[in-house]
């Protein structure tokens, strides 16, 4: 009984920590949420990358934020295509006492306002200092402090707490300084660290945002809750390392990969009715 109660107490403490960290506001348990047939019917596929070539397609992507970032160095050398499995790999690795990782963004010709954005990926092992993410950004983010016009950072999926049972979602606006505003949500599941693929998706409409994992609706925000971006935004796939010492302690010389099977973008059919 003591062990069982202790486990419950530890879980409650973790929930409290997650709810009050980094602007996160709540917890969602994946398997208890409503499941949907996706993508929604009112969307058409307009762009995708199945990563079935022999190298990154630079007509679709660019290498983003090369150079030092947090406790690592972003480099195109960390980005590769697994030609056997048809996947993208963003590798995190130690070389000459430095940690290297990578980040890519979709090219400006692929920028989109509203839509359904989905990637299928696996994150293993989820651990402290290993920080993969799938997100949207605008080129005008924070310029005028009008988030509807400037756009927002929309984190469809990221993991940075280091707990293998939690993934996070967030929206940020008004830049990264004193005017920054954020809301967030965490999703809990026993399956996130099982070396299996999951789908992560966002439905973005003028009426708000809906976040999905494996077709479960894990978080919903309406335009009455937060500003809704009306800006063109682009996709980012990234890894970051927040603590070099922790990374070396956990992984040593082992390469740790964020593996992406595909990215697909659907255009909302109602877009033409807005202008």
Explain what this protein looks like in three dimensions.
This protein is mostly beta strands and 275 residues long. It has a single domain (25-273), classed as Jelly Rolls (Sandwich). It is built from 3 helices and 19 strands. The chain has helices spanning 2-19, 147-150, 244-251, and strands at 24-29, 43-49, 61-63, 67-69, 72-74, 79-82, 87-95, 98-101, 103-106, 115-123, 131-138, 153-158, 166-173, 181-188, 198-205, 208-213, 216-222, 233-240, 256-268. Strands 2, 4, 5, 6, 7, 8, 10, 15, 16, 17 and 19 form an 11-stranded mixed beta sheet that branches. It has an 8-stranded mixed beta sheet with strand order 1-14-13-12-11-18-9-3, covered by helices on one side. Strand 16 (208-213) and strand 17 form a beta hairpin. The longest helix has 18 residues, at 2-19. 39% of the residues are buried. Mean pLDDT is 91; it is low at 1-24. InterPro entries: Beta-glucanase-like, ConA-like_dom_sf, Glycosyl_Hydrlase_16. Residues 1-21 form the signal peptide. Keywords: Signal. It comes from Sphingobacterium anhuiense. This is Family 16 glycosylhydrolase.
């Amino acid at each position: 009984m003591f062990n069982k109660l202790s486990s419950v107490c530890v879980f409650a403490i973790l929930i409290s920590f997650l709810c009050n960290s980094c602007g996160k506001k709540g917890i969602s348990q994946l398997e208890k949420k409503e499941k949907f047939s996706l993508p929604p019917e009112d969307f058409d596929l307009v762009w995708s990358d199945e990563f079935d070539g022999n190298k990154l397609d630079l007509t679709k992507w660019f290498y983003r934020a090369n150079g030092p970032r947090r406790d690592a160095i972003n480099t195109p050398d960390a980005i590769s295509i697994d030609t056997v499995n048809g996947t993208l790999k963003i590798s995190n690795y130690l070389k000459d006492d430095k940690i290297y990782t990578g980040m890519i963004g979709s090219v400006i010709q692929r920028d989109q306002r509203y839509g359904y954005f989905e990637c299928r990926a696996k994150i293993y092992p989820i651990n402290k200092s290993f920080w993969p993410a799938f997100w949207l950004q605008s080129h005008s983010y924070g310029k005028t402090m009008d988030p509807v016009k400037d756009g927002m950072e929309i984190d469809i999926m990221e993991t940075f707490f280091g707990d293998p049972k939690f993934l996070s979602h967030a929206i940020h606006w008004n830049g990264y300084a004193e005017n920054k505003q954020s809301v967030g949500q965490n999703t809990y599941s026993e399956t996130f660290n099982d070396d299996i693929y999951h789908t992560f998706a966002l439905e973005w409409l003028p009426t708000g945002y809906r976040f999905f994992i494996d077709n479960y609706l894990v978080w919903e925000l309406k335009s009455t809750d937060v500003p809704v971006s009306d800006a063109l935004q682009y996709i980012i796939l990234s890894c970051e390392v927040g603590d070099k010492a922790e990374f070396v302690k956990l992984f040593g010389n082992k390469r740790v990969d964020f593996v992406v099977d595909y990215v697909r973008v659907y255009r909302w059919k109602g877009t033409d009715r807005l202008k």
